[in-house]
Design goal:
The protein is α+β, with helices and mostly antiparallel strands. It contains four helices and four strands.
């Protein structure tokens, strides 16, 4: 099982994020270095959605804890977030690979 953390950003997030961007990126890279986050970034052509993929023993708890302390959430650059369980079955890093 993986987890997808999704952020909804405020309309002016491209400017609102500037004071917090370095801290947000350092925070995210620390999660990668701990082996908790696989990927993260913005999706879409605008308005953007933030997406991060978590792994580990309890990826839902990891993603939830990450969001609760992320500088973008704490400083309201992200106006909402949610964690979705993701049952990965295809790919080299799938949690439960299924082949025909």
């Amino acid at each position: 099982m993986h987890a997808v953390l999704e952020y909804t950003f405020r309309d002016d997030h491209l400017t609102a994020r500037l004071p917090y961007r370095a801290e947000h990126l350092s925070y995210a890279w620390a999660a990668v270095d701990r082996g908790e986050m696989i990927l993260g970034g913005a999706a879409g052509d605008g308005p953007f959605t933030g997406l991060m993929i978590f792994t580990g023993e309890d990826p839902i708890a990891l993603a939830s804890a990450h969001a609760a302390a992320d500088p973008y959430v704490v400083n309201r650059v992200a106006t909402a977030w949610r964690v979705l369980p993701w049952a990965t079955v295809v790919g080299h890093d799938a949690a439960d690979p299924v082949r025909p």
